[in-house]
Amino acid sequence: MELSFERGPERGRELRRLPAEHYRKLLLLYSRNNGSNLFIPIRAMQYLAVFDREEVVFVDGQGPRVIGLAWREFHPGERGDLRTPVGYTCVYYEAKGAQVMGRLQGEFLKALDLLNDRQPRTGGDATVIHFDRGRDR
């Protein structure tokens, strides 16, 4: 199934921060999806979030397939600690984007938690590496 979305002209942008735990979950869910686009329904707002490793785009599920806003330019390497929130740029493509953003981040985080809880864990093989203790002395 192929979905396409339109992106209008940029109406504004701002720097924001995503909690570290949710950034980690986003990457984990993406990797469990074998690197394919990750679709995250935000039922409370009738929005769909799509993550493609570079950005998260948000589409209003009630209207045409137009990107309302996007989270781009994640900066995880700028953190000194893995528990520190990850900076990103929020780009608005619709006039109502800034109004929606007030509620969207919280609802997105809830939807991400729900998707994480519902996704089956893979039973991948583990490898144990034995270290030669004689070389450490």
How does the SSE layout of this entry go?
Blueprint: E1 12-18, H1 20-32, E2 38-42, E3 47-51, E4 55-60, E5 67-75, E6 86-92, H2 97-118, H3 133-136
Antiparallel strand pairs: 1-6, 2-3, 3-4, 4-5, 5-6
Helix pairs in contact: 1-2
Can you give a write-up of this model?
This protein is α+β, with helices and mostly antiparallel strands and 137 residues long. The protein has a single domain (12-118), classed as TATA-Binding Protein (2-Layer Sandwich). Helices cover 28% and strands 28% of the residues. It has three helices and six strands, in the order βαβββββαα. It has helices at residues 20-32, 97-118, 133-136; strands at 12-18, 38-42, 47-51, 55-60, 67-75, 86-92. It has a six-stranded antiparallel sheet with strand order 1-6-5-4-3-2. Helix 1 (20-32) crosses helix 2 (97-118). It is globular and about 65 Å long. 18% of the residues are buried. The model has no long low-confidence stretch (mean pLDDT 86).
